Amino acid sequence: MDIKAVTRSSKRYNQLPSFARGGLRSAFYRTGERGFAGYVFDPDEPSRKFSVEMLIDGFPFRVIRADALVHTLIQEQIGDGCYGFSCALPTAAVNDKAVVEARLANLGTAVGTPITVTLATDQAPHPLGPGSLRWLGGLRFSGWIAGRDESAAANVHVDGTLIARVRATAWTHVGTSEEDARAVRAFDFYLPERFADGAVHQLTINDDARENIGGPLVFIAYPDGLRATLVGQGISNEERLRAELFDQLIPMSLPLSQYRGWRDRFPDSSCPPVALRGAVIIVGPGATDDTLESLRQQTHADWVAASLPQTSEPTGFHTELARAFLNEDGANCEFVVFALAGTLFAPSALRRIASAFAEFTNAQAVYCDLDIQTDDGSVWPLAFPVFDYERALEQGYCAHLFALRRDAAERALGNHAASIYRVFNSVLDNASAPYSNIVHLPGPLGTLPEFDKTAAGAALAAASEEHLKRKGIGAQATLEPAGILPNVYIKRSFERPRITIIIPTRNRNALLHGCIESIRPAIKRTQAELVVVDNDSTDPDTLSYLAKLEKRDATVLRVPGDFNFSRLNNYAVKAVDAEILCLLNNDVKALDESWLEEMLGRVSDADVGAVGTLLVWPSGVVQHGGVVLGPSFAATHAFNDRIDDDFGYSDLLRVAHECSAVTAACMVTRRRDYLDVGGMDEVRFPVNFNDVDYCLKLRALGKRIVFTPHAKLVHLESASRGLDVRDNKKERFERELQNLRAKWGSVLAADPYYSPMLSLDPIPFSALAWPSRAMQPRSNIPSNPTQVPAGF
Question: Which fold is adopted by the domain 17-116?
Answer without folding.
Answer: Immunoglobulin-like (2.60.40)
